Automatic annotation (TrEMBL):
Keywords tagged on the record: 2Fe-2S, Dioxygenase, Iron, Iron-sulfur, Metal-binding, Oxidoreductase
Keyword Oxidoreductase among UniProt keywords: yes
PANTHER family: 3-KETOSTEROID-9-ALPHA-MONOOXYGENASE, OXYGENASE COMPONENT, IRON-SULFUR DOMAIN CONTAINING PROTEIN
Protein's name in the database: Phenylpropionate dioxygenase-like ring-hydroxylating dioxygenase large terminal subunit
Statement: the UniProt record of this protein carries the keyword S-adenosyl-L-methionine: no
Source organism of the structure: Brevundimonas lenta
Pfam families registered for this protein in UniProt: Rieske
Alphabetized InterPro entries for the sequence: Cholesterol_7-desaturase, Rieske_2Fe-2S, Rieske_2Fe-2S_sf
GO MF annotation, one: dioxygenase activity
Stretches assigned to the Rieske domain: 32-143
Length: 373
């Protein structure tokens, strides 16, 4: 099997797991979620995040180790992120709770309870805060969310590697929270037909420039790609890059979409990370890298465009929610909605493969899709 067809099976999947959730419900588990850029996690810092409805502290020791744990002190429920990183003899660096000074190592094990006296035989290391596996990769921090309710088990695959992370640190980062389940955010992101109606900038496209398109797609690891092609003639912004740009657009579970553009030896990577905060809120983070000379010149205009796109998509999500609160049946059509169908198939297969302890089998098959936009 190729990487596009399979992934490692769960090492020790629980015997009974819930069936795959319906569209707009539940989350992809046993997966890496983007939480922050590495540069935003400073040494000695503690920051509260919310992932899949759970409070998660993401911090870095003064020595540089990134860690994550549940952001609730088991003593009296104060957020550990409100504390500080301290170093005591024999303990190493720990997170000190702001309420009673309980200290926890980066792996979540309690190192000390200051209120105990010497003849009290309570063993602090029997107390543990749930910890999360963390990886730093390509200047980003990812947190592993397991399906095991005990929080046990090590990740059996690594975070995705993205092509085109060039030119040092990210050139441009923008984010926005959408009042939406991640499923609706994902299919909105990959929807090829909404652009002329929702994004009507002069430099992009409009309903008056719509024409038929045919794009080839292939399976990729945990997802699929619109294979490398020349940008659409009615996408005027690409002309700023000059030369003959060729772009490939990829989606990967649980919520990553990236467009990798090559113009001769130069590259642009536009990465979108979807991070579910709660059942009804999703953070959309857009990150750009490039070693193309024009990128620095165009950056202020690109920022305005990215913000405009996010606001327009966010506004449409709010309108969509007016209908979704009545839980209507949704109609999916080919070929414009085929990517949305693939996403749902990928989610179902991922959940089933984990529950059954077998390799993931990518349900996406090579195809050419046609639509107007």
């Amino acid at each position: 099997m190729t990487p596009a067809d399979s992934a490692s099976p769960a090492a020790s999947a629980p015997e009974a797991k819930a069936p795959p959730a319906a569209f707009g419900k539940g989350f992809v588990l046993d997966a890496w979620y983007f939480v922050a850029l590495s540069r935003d996690v400073a040494p000695g810092s503690l920051k509260r995040h919310e992932l899949l409805g759970e409070p998660v502290l993401v911090g870095r020791t003064k020595a540089g180790q990134v860690f994550a744990m549940r952001d609730i002190c088991p003593h009296r429920a104060a957020p550990l992120s409100a504390g500080r990183v301290v170093e005591k003899p024999g303990e190493g660096e720990t997170v000190e709770c702001c309420y009673h000074g309980w200290r926890f190592r980066p792996d979540g094990v309690c190192a000390a309870i200051p209120s105990l006296v010497e003849d009290q035989a309570y063993e602090p290391d029997r107390i543990r805060v749930r910890s999360y596996a963390v990886r730093e990769s390509q200047g980003m921090v990812f947190v592993w969310i397991t399906s095991d309710p005990r929080g046990a088990g090590e990740p059996d695959h690594e975070p995705p590697q993205f092509p085109g992370v060039v030119g040092g640190e990210a050139k441009l980062v923008e984010w926005m929270d959408f009042e939406s389940h991640i499923d609706h955010a994902v299919v909105g992101l990959m929807d090829p037909a909404h652009g002329p109606y929702v994004h009507q900038q002069w430099w992009w496209r409009s309903e008056h420039s719509m024409h038929e398109k045919a794009k080839a797609f292939e399976p990729r690891e945990l997802g699929f790609s619109m294979v490398r092609h020349a940008p659409s003639s009615n996408s005027r912004a690409y002309k700023l890059l000059g030369g003959a740009p060729a772009t490939e657009i990829t989606f990967r579970l649980p919520g990553y979409r990236w467009e990798h553009i090559q113009v001769g030896p130069k590259q642009v990577l536009a990465l979108t990370c979807l991070t579910p905060i709660t059942e009804n809120r999703t953070r959309i983070t857009q990150i750009f890298w490039s070693d193309h000379w024009i990128f620095n010149i165009a950056k202020p205009f690109l920022r305005m465009g990215v913000v405009a796109f996010l606001k327009q998509d966010g506004g449409m999500v709010n309108l969509q929610n007016e209908g979704l609160r009545y839980d209507p049946a949704l109609i999916w059509i080919d070929d414009a909605d085929k990517q949305a169908k693939w996403y749902q198939q990928l989610k179902r297969e991922w959940s089933k493969s984990r529950a059954e302890g077998r390799p993931f089998a990518n349900p996406v098959k090579p195809a050419t899709l046609r639509w107007k936009s």
